[in-house]
Amino acid sequence: MKIEGNTVLITGGATGIGFALAKAFVENGNEVIICGRRKDKLKEAKNNLPKLNTIECDISKEYSREMLYKEITSNFNDTNILINNAGIHKIIDFKKGMVDLFTSSEDEIDINLKAPIYLASYFIPNFMNKNESAIINVSSGLAFVPLASMPIYCATKAALHSWSVSLRYQLKDTSIKIFEVMPPIVDTDFHKEDRDKIKNRSLPPTAVAEETLKALEKDEYEIPIGVAKSLRFVNTDNFEQIFQERNKQQ
Ligand SMILES: NC(=O)c1ccc[n+]([C@@H]2O[C@H](COP(=O)([O-])OP(=O)(O)OC[C@H]3O[C@@H](n4cnc5c(N)ncnc54)[C@H](OP(=O)(O)O)[C@@H]3O)[C@@H](O)[C@H]2O)c1
């Protein structure tokens, strides 16, 4: 896949991994549009990187996804890369019944799984008419070995992986390439409550962006990064041991 001269839409592109990807794509000569819910974060991203285009959007809402698709096809009709990056995570203790599920109005299944599927479905017919196009799903090493404290988050990422595999197969005879980025722990606002805890074992978001662009250029469709490389290929012989060890560390 060429990594210059594209038009790239990045969900959740104002912060963290999304912003690092946005910066790397801009620096490589691509047009980049980012979207997110918080106006102040979009403005901050634009101040840091004036070439960015920004759109306010809540990808968990169907009307907002439809509005995003219409705005992209009206104003950025050359868009040929969709990066499904936006995501949230919650700590959920099922011993409390429904309590943790209602700690906020945000829904991990809607944001991490349903939104990428629906956005991709909007863009696929349009992308099939482009010479070369791509959908890049940002999953996680936790898709392969879950952390029990974030059970829904890990399940959404495992589902995102499974869907990416099927989508790649369905679209193999089209111009659309399906990539999946599997980050390890990355130092972003995702960890704003436990930044100190992760500081010695996290990567900077720029490292994720750098590895992603290198892999895109080589058409490496699965992009496990750092420790996610070993998690991706955990097999049935050692799964239980690795699962137990990683969950004890928490
Ligand atoms: N950091 C890690 O350790 C790590 C590891 C593996 C995978 N990942 C994945 O990497 C992706 C990016 O996370 P990050 O670490 O860069 O964290 P982050 O800085 O918190 O980025 C998440 C982004 O998603 C946006 N977002 C959330 N809900 C949204 C919605 N409903 N509509 C539109 N945008 C929404 C947020 O913006 P608004 O709140 O303004 O909408 C924010 O810009 C996520 O999918 C995450 O699961 C992260």
Write the layout of secondary structure elements.
Blueprint: E1 7-11, H1 16-27, E2 31-36, H2 39-48, E3 53-56, H3 62-75, E4 81-84, H4 108-127, E5 133-138, H5 151-170, E6 176-182, H6 195-198, H7 205-217, E7 222-224, H8 228-232, H9 239-249
Parallel strand pairs: 1-2, 1-4, 2-3, 4-5, 5-6, 6-7
The chain binds NADP nicotinamide-adenine-dinucleotide phosphate (NAP).
The site of NADP nicotinamide-adenine-dinucleotide phosphate has 28 residues, from helix 1.
Walk me through the structure:
This protein is α/β, with parallel strands linked by helices and 250 residues long. Helix content is 44%, strand content 14%. Strands 3-2-1-4-5-6-7 form a seven-stranded parallel beta sheet, with helices on both faces. Helix 1 links the parallel strand 1 and strand 2. Helix 3 (62-75) runs parallel beside helix 4 (108-127) and helix 4 (108-127) runs parallel beside helix 5 (151-170). The radius of gyration is 18 Å and the shape is globular. Residues 11-12, 14-18, 36-38, 41, 57-60, 85-88, 111, 138, 140, 183, 185-186, 188-190 line the site of NADP nicotinamide-adenine-dinucleotide phosphate.
